[in-house]
Structures are given as C-alpha cells and as structure tokens.
Design goal:
This protein has 18 helices and 14 strands. It is α/β, with parallel strands linked by helices and 448 residues long.
C-alpha cells in the first residue's frame, strides 16, 4: 500500500536533510574528538561497520547516553538473568553512555552483554547494522525516535517498543510540526510504555494507536545506591579532610551556569567561610574551561581526576565520569544543573536517594512531573539567580534539622514512585517468550 502524499513528502525532505548532514556529521565527530578523544574512537560503528563476532539475534536496547543507560541497566540485567541464552546488545550515542554499559552491565555480567555505538539514521548504515546483527527485538529508552531506524525494523519484522517514554509539551510541539512523519513512527511501535499519564496523552495526540500506549511509571525512581556507596563516601570525606565543613554540590552544570554557581558560592562563603562547593560539569571534557572559571573567581581548587586530595580548597572540581552518585552522598545540599539555562534541568532522583534537599533553577521542562513530585512534597526549591541560590543553600546548610527533614521527604518521594522496573520487566519478558526465547523461572517458581 502506497504511503499518503504528505508522508512521502516528509520522507523525501528527511532524506535530503540526511544527505546534506552527512559531511557535517563527520566534521562534528572530529571537532568533538578534540575535546573528548573518545568521540574519535570506534567511528566505524556509527556507520554500521561492526565486528563480525558480535552475536546475532540479540535483544537490542538503545539507551543513548549515561542517564538512560543507568535507568535501563537493572531491567537489562534482570532479563539477561531470566533469559540466559538470549543475546543482548546495548547501543549508546555517547562515550559516557558507553562507559556506563561497561561498568554496570558488561563487567558485572562477565561480558554477556554486547555493546556498540548506535548507527546514525542513514539508510545504508542501518541496513549494514540490521544485516550484521539480525536483532529479534528493539527496545528504545525514553524518546529516541528515528524514522529510518523504525521503518527498517518494521520492514524486517523486528518488534519495536518505546519504554520509560517521556514527552514534554515542548517536545510534543516539535514532533507535531512533522506530524505525518511522527504518526508513521508511532504506528510502527508495538507498545509505548510512558512514565506518566500526561505523557501518554501527548503520544496519543500525535497519532499513536490508543491500544498501544500505557503509563507504567519511571524506572529512574528504582535507582539503588551501589553496595560500596557508604564506604566510598566515607573515604572521600576522609581524603578531603571534610570534618565539619559545610558541603554543597552543583551537579551536571552546563556552560553559563558555573559563573552563577561560583557567584553564589562567593556570597555563601561570607556566611560560611569553610564552605566547600563540589562543582560537577555535565560534560567532563569542559573540565579545563570550568577550572579556568574557578581560578577567575578567585577560589582555590582541587580536581577529582588528579587522584591526590587537596584538603582545605574552596571548590572541588568533579571532572571524572561515574562519580556523581557518590558525590551527592558526599554533600549536604544538591543543586541540579541544566536548570539555570535553557537545557531543561537534569533528573533530581539520584540526589534524592542520597537524602539531599534539592534546589533547581526555573528551567525544568525536561522532568516536569518528577520536579512537581518533589516540589509538592516540599523538598525541592526553585531559584532564579545567584542571590536566591546562595540564600537557599545557606538556609539549608545552617539548619541541620531542616536539612535532614527535607532529605527524608526526598527519599519518601522516591519510595512512593518505585515499581516501574518490575512492570517493564514483565512486559519485556512476555515479548521475549512470545518470540521463543528460553525462560529460566525464578527460584520461587521452580519450587512451586
């Protein structure tokens, strides 16, 4: 059956845009590799040129970057244990995501999980990828929709599911501008498991079939502290000789935010001279630029990446990957970055499970439901500028009882919203059993 004219037009325009973008994709990778050498490695994978030893017939999870990988890791690990003979492949787009796959899945599961970078949405790259791997199921995390990827999966009869799906009002407006192409992508998904009912409504408004959309909750509320969390936090506090120093963290900051955070820290030190700021840029490759900003602000600093602690500094620059959860436990109050600039804010849940009072700027459109849950519980405060940030942080650092109360409330919000991982595991297990994957029942089932 021939596609409608509007859809054919959008596909044609998309094909032209991809053709024009291809040279720029190569250039962008080279430019990013100057700041982060990891972007210059394994480039061939992004164009579908893969190691022939990779397993065929795998369940393909696409997790984009570090946050999505961390959220998906428990589900992937459980499925790997339940279906031990089923190959599993995880793709990401970023080196930070790749590092999380290695640390959270490949190493703990004795390399039973395979990993490559995802192919770009070029038809030839995707054809090579699908031909080389012949995946049996495609599981996309959050809102990772690519027209050619979904079209080729459909043509090759590979079921595709979108899980832990979220769709902000802003993103929905963007997808609405390419309505026929969006509706075609959504129609090719076997199921869309949304985080919240209002997200499901937005998918439905864009043309998703009503019988293929549901709200199962957010797996990010199911995040757990690693077994070594308490010991690592204690070691950090000892290495940096924290003692009774007040400590706050600005996590996942972006360009334009560090100057505001450092200005707030200067105001804070007028009241708390011993205060330590842990400054953790979202992208570690910005470490040198952020270090220069710290110097320009007149603060002494130490770098986490240097290994040797420098007690007594004003600012600890967290310029490594995979440490943020420990640093939230190390601090006493958490500011979540990406919220003082128009990035949309980063997820506050990891800070919440560390019993942190939460602070964010006004730009929270990435996680409005999550932010609302913590805000309604009274444990998340929104600020506008350096002055209001300094005042809120000072209020929390100066009142231990209040700080502990807000931390408990944050933990309780997380506890009330747990359970999405189990629901998604049930959904994906049913899909795999329908595909004929061999299932290993849990111990209780064996005894029954």
């Amino acid at each position: 059956m021939e596609a409608p004219i509007a859809l054919r037009c959008w596909r044609g325009l998309y094909a032209v845009l991809l053709l024009l973008a291809r040279p720029w994709v190569h250039l962008r990778l080279k430019l990013r590799a100057r700041r982060d050498p990891e972007y210059g490695r394994r480039i061939e994978e992004r164009f579908g040129h893969l190691d022939p030893d990779l397993p065929k017939g795998a369940v393909w999870f696409h997790t984009v970057s570090a946050g999505e990988t961390i959220a998906a890791a428990p589900i992937i690990a459980r499925l790997a244990e339940t279906f031990p003979e089923q190959p599993v492949l995880v793709t990401t787009m970023t080196p930070t995501g790749s590092a999380q796959v290695q640390a959270r899945l490949m190493e703990p599961l004795d390399n039973r999980i395979a990993h490559v970078y995802a192919p770009y949405d070029f038809p030839d790259a995707l054809r090579r990828f699908f031909s080389a791997l012949e995946p049996c199921l495609l599981v996309l995390m959050e809102t990772e929709l690519w027209p050619n990827m979904l079209r080729l999966a459909s043509e090759r009869q590979v079921p595709a599911l979108l899980v832990n799906a979220r769709l902000s009002e802003r993103s929905a407006r963007g997808y609405g501008r390419i309505g026929p192409l969006t509706a075609d992508m959504l129609a090719r998904l076997k199921f869309i498991a949304c985080q919240y009912p209002d997200h499901a409504e937005r998918f439905l408004a864009l043309g998703a079939p009503a019988d293929r959309v549901g709200a199962l909750g957010s797996v990010k509320f199911d995040v757990e502290l690693p077994p070594d969390h308490e010991a690592r936090v204690a070691a950090l506090r000892q290495d940096w000789a924290i003692g009774d120093r007040p400590v706050w963290i600005a996590g996942s900051t972006h360009a334009g935010e560090e100057t505001v955070v450092l200005e707030a820290h200067g105001m804070l030190k007028a009241q708390f001279p011993e205060a330590l700021l842990v400054l953790a840029p979202r992208h570690p490759e910005r470490r040198d630029a952020v270090a220069q900003l710290i110097d320009e602000a007149g603060f002494s600093q130490g770098r986490l990446s240097h290994g040797d602690a420098v007690p007594g500094v004003d600012v600890l620059l967290a310029d490594t990957m995979g440490e943020l959860l420990y640093l939230y436990g190390f601090s006493q109050v958490a500011f979540l970055g990406g919220s003082l600039v128009s990035v949309g804010g980063h997820n506050p849940i990891e800070a919440a499970i560390c019993a942190q009072p939460l602070v964010m700027g006004p730009e929270t459109f990435n996680f409005p439901d999550v932010v609302a849950a913590f805000s309604d519980a009274g444990c998340l405060t929104l600020v506008q500028d350096a002055r209001s940030l300094a005042d809120v942080i000072a209020g929390h650092l100066g009142d231990q009882a209040l700080r502990e109360e807000l931390g408990r409330k944050a933990e309780q919000v997380v506890a009330r919203n747990r359970g999405a991982t189990a629901r998604l595991e049930k959904l994906l297990s049913a899909e795999l059993q329908a595909l004929g994957a061999r299932h290993t029942p849990p111990p209780d089932s064996k005894r029954a």
